[in-house]
User: What shape does this take?
Amino acid sequence: MKILIADDDIECIRSLGRILKTKGYEIDIAIDGQYALELLGKNEYDIVFLDQNMPDYTGVQLAQYIKQEKIKTRVVMITGFPHIEDSFLKIVGIDEFIEKPYHVEDIENILKKYTE
Assistant: This one.
């Protein structure tokens, strides 16, 4: 399974990357929205973890791009802004939402849900 992590928070990338690598997943990392957009154009991902607030393109803008281009991937929004409406997330193409700081169990539950 191939996963993209797009987040400008280096500590979040390290933490999530460790979790995913120990479970045997192949990961790519983008520290801004522009690089995430480039990776999405070149590679196929099973799951994309997007931070809402990144330079160049936000997580919502990237989710809209994924939906518009009909890219087949699951989109998980990770954000420190907990007051986003579920209906809005679904409209822009976000499958799951996790609040920062997240727990390992949150990530494991999403992986379990989409790998079974």
Summary: DSSP finds five helices and five strands in the chain. The mean pLDDT is 90.
